[in-house]
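All the exercises in this workshop are built on plain-text protein records. A record pairs a protein's sequence with a compact description of its fold. The structure tokens are whole numbers drawn from a learned vocabulary of backbone shapes. Once this layout is familiar, the rest of the handout is easier to follow. An example says more than a description, so a record of this kind follows.
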Amino acid sequence: MTFGDLKTDKGVKELNSFLEDKSYISGYSPSQADIDAVNQLAKSPAANFPHVLRWYNHIKSFSADELKQYGATGASPLKTAATTTAPAKEEDDDDVDLFASDRRRC
């Protein structure tokens, strides 16, 4: 994706329009494209580009190690652990009578 020169207001304006309904430049998590675009910006975006400013602050909130992981694989650094527990046994609920008080009144 190209937005023009991100060191100019015109390029930042194009990026702002693109990010109006998106969180990232490509996909649903930060990627190398986000890192590259942040590095192309001359400075922190002005407040008159609210979508770029939101995105910029979000990308800048990641640590250097997290950004390396995103840049290397495009994957989220928050990996979920593999499930190692066995599924729970199906329990016998026959002894639980939630409406026992209703039967006693009859």
